[in-house]
Amino acid sequence: MTASQTRIFTAGTVHTMTGTTVPAFAAFGETIVATGEVATLRTRFPEAEVHDFGNAVLLPGFNDAHQHPSIMAEQLLEVDCSPELVGSRAELLAKLAERATTTPPGHWVIGCRYDHAKSTGGTVLTRAELDRVCPDHPVFLRQIGMHWGVLNTVGLRAAGLNESTELPPGGELGRDAAGRLDGTVYERAMFELVEPAIPERGTDERLAGLRRYQRMMHAAGITSVGDALVWPRGLRLLQEAHARQELTLRVSMLLAYSGLDAMGALGLRTGLGDTRLRIGGVKAFVDGAVAGGTCLLEEPYADSCGHGIQAMPTEELADFVSTVHRAGSTVCVHANGDRAIRLLLDAVEAAQRAHPRPHARHRIEHCTLVDPGLLARIAALGLIAVPFGSYVAFHGEKLPGYYGRQRAERMFPHRALLDAGVPVAGSSDFPCGPYDVRLALRSCVTRRTADGTVLGEDQRISQAEALALYTTGAAYASGEEHRKGTIAEGMLADFVVLDRDPFHVPGEELTEIEVEQTWVGAERVWSREPS
Predict the structure, then answer these.
(1) Residue 287 half-sphere exposure, CB side, CA atoms within 13 Å?
(2) Which H/E stretch holds residue 9?
(3) From CA 219, how far away is CA 496, in angstroms rounded?
């Protein structure tokens, strides 16, 4: 190593996330090689570049343990129907009709991030409404939770769906009062029948979407993400970006359950890859979405007599967990509702009895609704919980309508999980929730919804605990705590520079902090000020 290949970084405050601060640190290549006083580091590396961020605050780069980069690379090319952009039925339909004017007849028009609770008055757009504005194009409108969507008549036909279609277990089609398909499609019917019918975009087009997505993440101070549902097309995209050296984020991939047999045949398992792109585990679903009102509950929904959707039959779930567990990989299962979590715990306990792996680090993706009995079982199994960070702030005001206030206040139980000794990672599930870590920090600390109501005050956590979710907690969840999450010798030089100290500002002001710069592997990937 030569001093000229080393960089020294210093700031007003450098939080290491080990409970201490340091004046500065030095990095050689992508790795931190020393921490200490600036003068000491200058003496040790006299030819090193020195980057002085003045009075700014430096922390390890934010790590979002569960979102969807390979999906977002395509959604950024679709019609954005986010509630902050679309405030009415008429506006949403007009956006889809406008896209149809620039889309050849017969080609798909796809809308994403549709929130019926916020944009269309709590009622879902119908097949007939979509038919009126797009009669010549297949249309698919994904709900923001990404567990259901709406098709028009041409879209139903293009996906091969009709009144007599045989559905996969856990898949459902909506029907109107006359029993006719109304265009809504749920869970595995969407994942396994609709999504595969949509042609894959060209590689260059999707790479452009991925570049845009990465810029968004870096502007938020994010340096690592977990891609929590990687289908074969997503795997091809991420590998191509990595081969072209265009992958500026570090990505831990949760491969889709449909690829489990291929993984087994090839002997692939958790940990394969490098510090930029690696296999983090295998993903499956027990139930549906919190924001979409399809998660699986022990007690019925407040606004209906239903209990939600079980997306994977119990026997299939047990087989999946056992197979992944025995292969030495990480089980990463989406389970929101209390009944879904119970079913998952049953499967993990059975797998551990048959093939003990005391440090398996299996994960519950979302882990939204628990009780003391479930908490005790989660802790005893050593499972990692990956709950939503920003959902109280973004979706909170509509949840009591689905679940009742008492149950809604228990959701996203960060305090209860931490108090039970369960490892917890921060996540957004973007695009299902906002990716802005500052909003997630404020949401976890204040538990305030968009209208200012406090939802679940007893689940509040401290700012230090919230910051740990998105640094050390997320690193532990991906099995990379030896390389990420802290500023220390031997760790990757991934960090974010902020204008204020998130440990010390009032909780309500966390969203007012500015991200000044983001660095990955000691290289700057984003700056608020043009260089």
Answers:
(1) 29
(2) strand 6-15
(3) 10
Strand partners, 384: 363
**What phi and psi values does residue 326 have, to the nearest 5 degrees?**
-65, -30
Q: Is 63 left (phi over 0), alpha (psi -120 to 50) or beta?
A: beta
- pLDDT, averaged across the chain: 95
The pLDDT of residue 4 is 54
Q: Where are the alpha helices (DSSP H) in 355-389?
A: 372-381
Task: State mean pLDDT over 247-275.
Answer: 94
- How many CB atoms lie under 10 A from the CB of residue 78? 19
**Per residue in 77-119, pLDDT tens?**
999 999 989 989 999 999 999 999 999 999 999 999 999 988 8
Q: What is the pLDDT of residue 292?
A: 86
Q: Which of 115, 117, 155, 112 is nearest to 133 (CA)?
A: 155
Q: Which amino acid is at 69?
A: P
* Amino acid residing at 298: E
What is the DSSP-derived secondary structure letter of residue 124? P
Instruction: Indicate the pLDDT class of residue 2, thresholds 50, 70 and 90.
Output: very low
How far CA 5 is from CA of 33, 123, 454, in Å, comes to: 12, 59, 50
Helix axes 338-354, 314-326, angle to 10 degrees: 40
SS3 of residue 496 by DSSP: strand
Say which residues have a Cβ less than 8 Å from residue 490's Cβ, sequence separation at least 6: 31, 32, 482, 483
DSSP E strand boundaries for 62-104: 62-67, 79-80
Tokens of 459: 């689940």
pTM: 0.94
What is the per-residue pLDDT for 3?
A: 46
Instruction: Catalogue the E-assigned strands of 170-266.
Output: 171-175, 181-187, 222-230, 250-256
What are the pLDDT digits (tens) for 345-357? 999 999 999 999 9
State CA 56 to chain mean position distance: 28
Q: Rounded distance, CA 522 to CA 301, Å? A: 49
**228 CB-contact burial (10 Å; exposed 0-12 / middle 13-18 / buried 19+):** buried
